[in-house]
């Protein structure tokens, strides 16, 4: 039984091959960026309020005019089927039930077309600009034809960050099995047998395109001209993900981007990057109170979600904790953790005297440090 995201992570660590667990769990460098992110969340204090009628609480958080049943969606994550065969479709079904966005990664292990169908339209396509952009813009046209209405351009990976944990295991995309990986898999037979029966996870969006995606290929050519071309060809909502600087946020808003996602890529890119939850208020100030501002990175529980909203987010996204839940218990484990996170969020609202995640409700609810000492 999963009672917290920590429970899911512990179970996943036992069940997954070391290479797969460290790919999902790892961060850039010595992982001090991830540690600083956790410390920043822990240092944010929510102020309890008493004798307020909080008997009726609403966890919905509309995003691009669509009602949701939860205040968080699903971040785009590559090769999710490594956590368990069929993981992509489990996440898609969850998005359909909860009416939340499913981020479909460029390097998803299931193609974009069946995922948006399974998610009943609740899917956004996430795009990496790669090389000269030829393949990139083909994927944009495919997403448009498949019915995607929101495109996420991830901009914080001009070069892929070094993650020593996955490098030590020889993790690659496309997925390759050598002697070291074979031994790792042999020591985790439950995962290995189910994965073997389902077939090797691969980057499904490129099988139809007739070329192989090179994960390590440079993405450094992308600039504001690239963004302008993308804006011209994409008629729907355009989100830029991976923003940590208020000046960049203002420039993106002026360039016609529909929303910004504050993110450090789960601390997987630049170890010394600023902590997203700490820069969120400054970015909110830079773009103004009405501009859609999304948040991911470091969310581990309901209190974290409330803190992100109190810092200025309009919507949040969960990532690796969902993969851990799938690895721990399949679709049932995913449903358990999702329910836990919603319960934690609801209970937190009650404790601070709020009935929703609206900015007016949360004004004054958060501070840094420990006032009153």
TrEMBL record:
<feature type="binding site">
    <location>
        <begin position="76"/>
        <end position="78"/>
    </location>
    <ligand>
        <name>FMN</name>
    </ligand>
</feature>
<feature type="binding site">
    <location>
        <position position="105"/>
    </location>
    <ligand>
        <name>FMN</name>
    </ligand>
</feature>
<keyword id="KW-0288">FMN</keyword>
<keyword id="KW-0560">Oxidoreductase</keyword>
<protein>
    <submittedName>
        <fullName>Alpha-hydroxy-acid oxidizing protein</fullName>
    </submittedName>
</protein>
<dbReference type="InterPro" id="IPR037396">
    <property type="entry name" value="FMN_HAD"/>
</dbReference>
<dbReference type="GO" id="GO:0010181">
    <property type="term" value="F:FMN binding"/>
</dbReference>
<feature type="binding site">
    <location>
        <position position="126"/>
    </location>
    <ligand>
        <name>FMN</name>
    </ligand>
</feature>
<dbReference type="InterPro" id="IPR000262">
    <property type="entry name" value="FMN-dep_DH"/>
</dbReference>
<feature type="binding site">
    <location>
        <position position="23"/>
    </location>
    <ligand>
        <name>glyoxylate</name>
    </ligand>
</feature>
<dbReference type="GO" id="GO:0004459">
    <property type="term" value="F:L-lactate dehydrogenase (NAD+) activity"/>
</dbReference>
<comment type="similarity">
    <text>Belongs to the FMN-dependent alpha-hydroxy acid dehydrogenase family.</text>
</comment>
<feature type="domain" description="FMN hydroxy acid dehydrogenase">
    <location>
        <begin position="1"/>
        <end position="370"/>
    </location>
</feature>
<feature type="binding site">
    <location>
        <position position="241"/>
    </location>
    <ligand>
        <name>FMN</name>
    </ligand>
</feature>
<feature type="active site" description="Proton acceptor">
    <location>
        <position position="265"/>
    </location>
</feature>
<feature type="binding site">
    <location>
        <position position="154"/>
    </location>
    <ligand>
        <name>FMN</name>
    </ligand>
</feature>
<dbReference type="Pfam" id="PF01070">
    <property type="entry name" value="FMN_dh"/>
</dbReference>
<feature type="binding site">
    <location>
        <position position="163"/>
    </location>
    <ligand>
        <name>glyoxylate</name>
    </ligand>
</feature>
<feature type="binding site">
    <location>
        <begin position="296"/>
        <end position="300"/>
    </location>
    <ligand>
        <name>FMN</name>
    </ligand>
</feature>
<dbReference type="InterPro" id="IPR012133">
    <property type="entry name" value="Alpha-hydoxy_acid_DH_FMN"/>
</dbReference>
<feature type="binding site">
    <location>
        <begin position="319"/>
        <end position="320"/>
    </location>
    <ligand>
        <name>FMN</name>
    </ligand>
</feature>
<feature type="binding site">
    <location>
        <position position="263"/>
    </location>
    <ligand>
        <name>glyoxylate</name>
    </ligand>
</feature>
<dbReference type="InterPro" id="IPR013785">
    <property type="entry name" value="Aldolase_TIM"/>
</dbReference>
<feature type="binding site">
    <location>
        <position position="268"/>
    </location>
    <ligand>
        <name>glyoxylate</name>
    </ligand>
</feature>
<feature type="binding site">
    <location>
        <position position="128"/>
    </location>
    <ligand>
        <name>glyoxylate</name>
    </ligand>
</feature>
<dbReference type="GO" id="GO:0005886">
    <property type="term" value="C:plasma membrane"/>
</dbReference>
<keyword id="KW-0285">Flavoprotein</keyword>
<feature type="binding site">
    <location>
        <position position="265"/>
    </location>
    <ligand>
        <name>glyoxylate</name>
    </ligand>
</feature>
<dbReference type="GO" id="GO:0009060">
    <property type="term" value="P:aerobic respiration"/>
</dbReference>
């Amino acid at each position: 039984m999963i009672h917290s995201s920590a429970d899911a992570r512990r179970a996943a660590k036992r069940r997954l091959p070391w290479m797969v667990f460290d790919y999902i769990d790892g961060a850039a460098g010595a992982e001090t960026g991830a540690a600083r992110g956790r410390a920043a969340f822990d240092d944010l204090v929510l102020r309890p309020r008493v004798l307020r009628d909080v008997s009726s609480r609403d966890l919905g958080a509309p995003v691009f005019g669509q009602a949701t049943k939860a205040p968080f969606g699903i971040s785009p994550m590559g090769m999710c089927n490594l956590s368990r065969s069929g993981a992509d479709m489990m996440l898609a079904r969850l998005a359909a039930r909860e009416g939340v966005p499913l981020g479909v990664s460029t390097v998803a292990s299931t193609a974009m077309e069946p995922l948006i169908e399974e998610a009943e339209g609740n899917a956004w396509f996430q795009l990496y600009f790669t090389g000269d952009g030829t393949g990139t813009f083909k994927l944009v046209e495919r997403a448009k034809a498949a019915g995607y209405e929101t495109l996420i351009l991830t901009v914080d990976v001009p070069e892929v960050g070094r993650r020593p944990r996955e490098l030590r295991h020889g993790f690659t995309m496309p997925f390759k099995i050598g002697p070291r990986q074979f031994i790792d898999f042999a020591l985790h037979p439950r995962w290995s047998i189910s994965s073997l029966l389902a077939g090797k996870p691969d980057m499904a969006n490129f099988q139809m395109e007739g070329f192989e995606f090179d994960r390590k290929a440079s993405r450094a050519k992308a600039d504001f001209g690239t963004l302008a071309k993308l804006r011209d060809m994409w008629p729907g909502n355009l989100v830029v993900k991976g923003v940590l600087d208020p000046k960049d946020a203002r420039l993106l808003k002026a360039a016609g981007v529909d929303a910004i996602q504050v993110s450090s890529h789960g601390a997987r890119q630049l170890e010394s990057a600023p902590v997203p939850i700490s820069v969120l208020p400054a970015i909110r100030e830079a773009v103004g109170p009405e501009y859609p501002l999304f948040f991911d990175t470091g969310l581990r529980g309901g209190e974290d979600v409330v803190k992100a909203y109190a810092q200025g987010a309009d919507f949040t996204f969960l990532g690796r904790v969902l993969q851990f839940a799938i690895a721990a218990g399949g679709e049932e484990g995913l449903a358990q953790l999702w329910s836990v996170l919603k319960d934690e969020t609801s209970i937190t609202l009650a404790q601070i005297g709020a009935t929703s995640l609206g900015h007016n409700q949360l004004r004054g609810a958060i501070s840094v440090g420990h006032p009153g000492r």
